[in-house]
Design brief:
The complex is a heterodimer of chains A (112) and B (115).
Chain A lengths: L3 E4 L2 E4 L4 E8 L5 E7 L6 E7 L2 E5 L6 E7 L2 E7 L7 E8 L7 E2 L3 E5 L1
Parallel strand pairs in A: 2-11
Antiparallel strand pairs in A: 1-3, 3-8, 4-5, 4-9, 5-6, 7-8, 9-10, 9-11
Chain B lengths: L2 E3 L4 E5 L4 E3 L2 E3 L4 E8 L5 E7 L5 E3 L5 E5 L4 E6 L8 E11 L2 E6 L3 E6 L1
Parallel strand pairs in B: 2-12
Antiparallel strand pairs in B: 1-4, 3-9, 5-6, 5-10, 7-8, 8-9, 10-11, 10-12
Classes of the chains: A mainly beta (112), B mainly beta (115).
């Protein structure tokens, strides 16, 4: 299995909702990442988990809450989002970044 | 500050034309370099990567890139583009730090190939 699987593929949520994005990989990769990609922009790093511990939080607002339950799973909990948070949220994993990162297809999030 | 620059934001070519997309990075430590492609409505795909060794790297779909350390550059090339190469191309740098690594993307180049 050489894939990163993200669910759901599309999500529409209201500003008062709580939802979660899920990411799963079974490649044995020890680092997992959340990126945010706005239209016509490059992906921007949000969080890095290394060996199931949060290594980087790129000054992301607290309405985004990551969780790494085990080495194969990564969640992103969403609460009280704003319309400007609408974007494609990408999950990635790597064994060591030097050899490359595997990206999922993303969750397209719309906040209404 | 650490950054990745792609100077060509939009490129329009006719089929069979040659392609070269520029990428420069500013980082003094160990770097690993990548080019990713994102076709319309699709996810990021790895085109090629430089880890070490031969600075001329060959990737998928006929793409290649040359790492020139003295110029901090990693330009992407293809001798003859096809309509199906229409996509967004991102240069990316893997940065090393204590305990973790992270991938930083350039601003992207939107390529349009006309038939």
């Amino acid at each position: 299995d050489t894939e990163v699987t993200q669910t759901p593929k599309h999500l529409v949520m209201g500003m008062t909702n709580k939802k979660s994005l899920k990411c799963e990989q079974h490649m044995g990769h020890r680092a997992m990442y959340w990126y945010k990609q706005k239209a016509k922009k490059p992906p921007e790093l949000m969080f890095v988990y290394s060996y199931e511990k949060l290594s980087i939080n790129e000054s992301v607002p607290s309405r985004f809450s990551p969780e790494c339950p085990n080495s194969s799973l990564l969640n992103l909990h969403l609460h009280a989002l704003q319309p400007e948070d609408s974007a494609l949220y990408l999950c990635a994993s790597s064994q060591t970044g030097a050899y490359g990162y595997t990206f999922g297809s993303g969750t397209r999030l719309t906040v209404v | 500050a650490q950054s990745v620059s792609q100077h060509n934001h939009h490129v329009i070519l006719s089929e069979a034309a040659s392609l070269e997309l520029g990428c420069n990075y500013s980082y003094g430590g160990t770097v690993n370099l990548f080019w990713y492609v994102q076709y319309p409505g699709q996810h990021l795909q790895l085109l090629l990567k430089y880890f070490s060794g031969d600075p001329l790297v060959k990737g998928i779909k006929g793409f290649e890139a040359e790492f020139i350390k003295s110029k901090f550059s990693f330009n992407l090339r293809k001798p003859s583009v096809q309509w199906s190469d229409t996509a967004e191309y991102f240069c990316a740098v893997n940065l090393w730090n204590t305990g973790f690594q992270k991938l930083v993307f350039g601003t992207g180049t939107r390529l349009l190939v006309s038939p």
